[in-house]
Amino acid sequence: MPMTKKYGSCNLCEAVCGLEFTVENNAVTSIRGDKQDPLSRGHICPKALSLIDLHEDPDRLVKPVRRTRDGWQEIEWDLAYDLVVDGLVSTRKQYGANAVGVYQGNPSVHSLGSMTHGIPFTSMLRTRNRYSATSLDQLPHQLVNHLLYGHQLALPIPDIDRTDFFLVLGGNPMASNGSMMTVPDFANRVRALQSRGGTLAVVDPRRTETADVADVHHFIRPGTDALLLLSLINVVIASGRTRVADYVDGVDEVTRLVQDFTPSAVADVVGISAEEIVTLGTRFASAEAAVAYGRMGVSTQRFGTVCQWAIQVLNILTGNLDRVGGALLSDPAIDLIDRSIVGRGHFDKWRSRVRDLPEFAGEFPCSTLVDEMTTPGDGRIRAMAVLSGNPALSVPGGTKLDDAFAGLDFMVSFDFYINETSRHANVILPPTMSLERDHYDLVFQAFGVRNTAKFSPAVVAKKPGAKAEWEIYRDLAIRYQAALSDSRLDRVRRRLTPTSLTTEARLRLSPRRTVDLLLRSARKGLSVSTLSKSPHGTDLGPLRPGLPGKLHTRDKRVHLVHDVVVAELPALHDVMHHAAVTTGEELLMIGRRHLRSNNSWMHNAPRLTKGRPRHQLLAHPDDLASRGIDDGSVVSVTSAAGTVRIEVLASDRMMPGVVSMPHGFGHQRQGVELSVATTVAGPSANDVTDPQHVDAVSANAILNGVPVTISPT
Ligand SMILES: Nc1nc2c(c(=O)[nH]1)N[C@H]1C(S)=C(S)[C@@H](COP(=O)(O)OP(=O)(O)OC[C@H]3O[C@@H](n4cnc5c(=O)[nH]c(N)nc54)[C@H](O)[C@@H]3O)O[C@H]1N2
Ligand SMILES: Nc1nc2c(c(=O)[nH]1)N[C@H]1C(S)=C(S)[C@@H](COP(=O)(O)OP(=O)(O)OC[C@H]3O[C@@H](n4cnc5c(=O)[nH]c(N)nc54)[C@H](O)[C@@H]3O)O[C@H]1N2
Ligand code: SF4
Ligand SMILES: [Mo]
């Protein structure tokens, strides 16, 4: 059989690295980094190689399965669709549209078919009970983009390749390969920054892999970054080095709001001395081009929204927003904003039934999903559709959610694995995997530190009987609509409504055709066929300034001050004045990610799970000694929400008073059909995180800075 080389991109994380595949006999025999990819330049991580493991995994589902009393039973697609449509439609007819809940998990934004066809399908359900990984993650970014720049996806991207000073708070791109910033080959980009005389500064309660390559690293007490950031704004203003664009309003008010949060007032509680804060702020303000960037550690904490707001304010006041080497809005080949593919977002237009928490862009926060499933009354969730996700492990209070899934009238999962969540589904619909499907990264090319575009055709043919994700959502959506309109009047009405006609026509377009139409109508001279001539990707150049033109606020101005942020200041005053955030016995738990692990999945890929265990609770040796806990022993970790048992690993890379537990584990549940290696055999961190506590502005989950006690077992 001839051996061929094919090119594409990895869709496992946000870095979208270019890949070179060797293909023989419809099988991928090797995967390497594509040196000619204009963004990733040959970089890959070990996860890319596991695409072969995933493809060949015997645990993987290819055909739909139905849960029966005697276990899982493989069924034909037609029957599976009928069962799903029947379950969803009967729940809606009996209890109303809000009785069907939707959870859209992380991989849904990494799958083209899910973007083009999953979103129209879930919109058809017309439920307010929509949830997604957004509120476990980047909701504060989206809310702040919406407030400051008028659109949830108007995300300024750090111009890492041209900056002089890169300040990273609560992000670990050396392990995560970047997030809300598509930055493959981070290590070499940092080396280039340093060799041109620039600085990488990291603020993190753990000395991370990113801190290891940084020039400056400060430990910070978890959850106190908002105080640090307000004091940095203070330092910048006091230094007289502000450079504010004329489309920005509210600088005087910001000056007033931050005035109490001086370096010396916050130093004790954040755990960084006043001198160090002043030095950091002064260096930031005096760099020719600087950029502050914050990720999970500052997003998924009590003051997540204030943190993301303050990061933008810091960039804006120092003139680094829309500046080469600062933070810039990208110019993707397919602009999700300009093409109105994603709306600008709206906030607090309605609230959740049980806990009165605000929606954002039509979604409720995940931390209240279990309440909406278990609290009796009108509007209670009775059926769920889970798209590419595993909320039983990913959402705070996972065990309760697990039980709640078990109590549903009906559930469908779209997943190629029987995982801790999909095990409760009545039917699982498995899509093809990444090697078998076309890819164009609608989201992460738009978040790139450089503008690039690539269309990657499927590398191998799909397995017999398998269906692509878009085909599944298309078939289901069309059948669902038909079943819903089963009265004659409805059918006539449907025929006359142009929207349902266009929806159906759109659903019948393949993702490749959809991408082609979007490219062509963007009038940049691109199409699927022009992109296909450059299989390594097309370079569209560095990030470019474009404000105020690219603002989506109604008056094309940036208003710095927003009531929801101002309302948080009293709470921040309280934290500042009660320097002890924890009682003497308590420690603050944070999370971590590992290069060879991806959220709650890929734990059965042999290439990734060999080696040393990586699920342990990291703790500072002094914190173990003072509690009489031996390194390597099993401890109980207890929070207000629950207790887990886990091995402890002493590490002087932890800030004293802080422990770290990775998430995505907890696979030892009955009925899960994965063969999971011992390296990832830890408990679920979300049996400890607390769904009752959320970021008070956005209601995003708090996954970092959770007060816990640990004790020997
Ligand atoms: N404590 C704690 N909790 C966290 C986090 C944390 O840092 N700490 N991080 C949070 C964050 S940032 C995120 S994004 C979430 C992620 O959590 P989830 O949104 O639950 O996503 P995953 O864990 O990635 O779930 C992946 C599931 O999708 C399936 N899948 C993979 N690819 C595809 C595909 O192409 N199509 C379909 N249909 N299915 C697919 C996999 O088989 C797997 O079962 O977890 C959050 N939870
Ligand atoms: N290998 C791998 N890569 C991934 C993923 C994965 O699971 N594995 N997941 C992907 C996803 S879904 C996402 S969202 C991204 C996340 O990308 P990142 O945010 O870069 O990844 P994390 O490892 O969660 O980094 C969060 C950092 O915040 C620190 N931290 C915790 N609490 C605080 C705090 O209060 N203040 C400060 N300043 N820091 C704090 C933690 O120690 C940690 O180093 O990664 C993506 N990439
Ligand atoms: S860094 Fe992310 S995109 Fe690149 S190879 Fe690894 S998993 Fe794939
Ligand atoms: Mo995420």
From TrEMBL:
All residue ranges annotated as the 4Fe-4S Mo/W bis-MGD-type domain in the record: 3-59
A GO molecular-function annotation: metal ion binding
Matches recorded under Gene3D superfamilies: 2.40.40.20, 3.40.50.740, ADC-like domains (2.20.25.90), Dimethylsulfoxide Reductase, domain 2 (3.40.228.10)
PROSITE patterns per UniProt: 4FE4S_MOW_BIS_MGD (PS51669)
Alphabetical UniProt keywords: Iron, Iron-sulfur, Metal-binding
Pfam families in the cross-refs: Molybdop_Fe4S4, Molybdopterin, Molydop_binding
Record-stated family: Belongs to the prokaryotic molybdopterin-containing oxidoreductase family.
UniProt-recorded name of the protein: Anaerobic selenocysteine-containing dehydrogenase
Source organism of the structure: Rhodococcoides kyotonense
